[in-house]
Design a protein that fits this description.
It holds the Pfam family AraC_binding. Helices cover 46% and strands 23% of the residues. The chain is built from 10 helices and 8 strands.
Length: 274
């Protein structure tokens, strides 16, 4: 459900070390363009889907499990790429906001991978629930929640940075998969790309993308097949299956349905393709 709240703030509330200005959730985040930036600090946490973020001229992709920080007055724009782009968001300010963010290693606007993103989202939901309550000293109660949020964000970002290092190490494997999308690949080949055993490769994939290597391969094959169906809609499905490395159209359809919940034929019909 889409939600948004603007906690009422008196002048004295704005002298708190931290204070909450906006919080909420969009089931599918719409396009936002702010050429002059925004007045407060913002954190947006992606739950599902994929978004595109521009900070100045720098382009970033935001995926599930990642969040992005926007510092005050920094020009930015963002919109969904893969819908629904499910996003929780808060805006906050206060005299210690910058200090806490710097302690978390967040010294500039950008995208950050967070471990235990469920904890981050839980904090954001709690802030929204509190802002809707009739508690006395509401701004102070919200301030306490923002403080707890930033402390946990500090831990989540540090752990997420380690995950990013693992992801970077896997780049040769991802490149190999991309280059051999139309061929069968074995896990031994993938492990050889970075000189590790298949067992250790599985551990790296689990840490980085939370799935086994061959599950990742099939996911990428299915994503490529959807692109082919969009851009070359007259290609028969058995040819699409071959181009994305499946031995048979029936196995391709089985994997497609397991991942997408519908068959390739239903996918084409749903999107008005012949």
């Amino acid at each position: 459900m889409d939600t948004i709240a603007f906690p009422a703030l008196a002048e004295a509330d704005r002298r708190l070390p931290l204070y909450l200005t906006i919080c909420g959730h969009w089931n599918n985040q719409e396009a936002i363009i702010r050429e002059q930036g925004f007045t407060d600090y913002q954190w947006l946490q992606c739950v599902s889907g994929t978004g595109e973020l521009f900070i100045g001229d720098a382009r970033h992709i935001v995926k599930a499990g990642q969040g992005f920080l926007l510092l005050p007055e920094v020009p930015h724009r963002y919109w969904p790429m893969e819908e629904p782009w499910d996003v929780h968001f808060i805006s906050f300010n206060g005299m210690i906001a910058e200090t806490l963010l710097r302690q978390a290693g967040m010294m500039e606007s950008g995208v950050y991978t967070t471990e235990n993103s469920e904890t981050i989202v839980s904090h954001m939901r709690n802030m929204y629930a509190m802002s809707q309550s009739d508690r006395s000293y509401l701004a102070i109660e919200c301030s306490k929640l923002v403080y707890m949020f930033l402390l946990d964000l500090m831990k989540a970002a540090e752990a997420g940075a380690q995950s990013e290092l693992t992801y970077s190490r896997l780049q040769p494997v991802f490149a190999y998969i991309e280059a051999n999308m139309d061929k069968p690949v074995a896990i031994k080949e993938l492990a050889a790309c970075i000189g590790v055993t298949p067992q250790y490769l599985c551990l790296l994939f689990k840490k980085s993308v939370n799935m086994r290597p061959m599950v990742y391969v099939n996911r990428e094959r299915i994503n490529r097949s959807k692109e082919l169906m969009f851009y070359e809609s007259r290609i028969p499905l058995h040819e699409i299956a071959r181009r994305v490395g499946f031995d048979s159209a029936s196995y391709f359809s089985s994997v497609f349905k397991k991942q997408e919940g519908i068959t390739p034929e239903q996918f084409k019909k749903l999107h008005g393709m012949r």
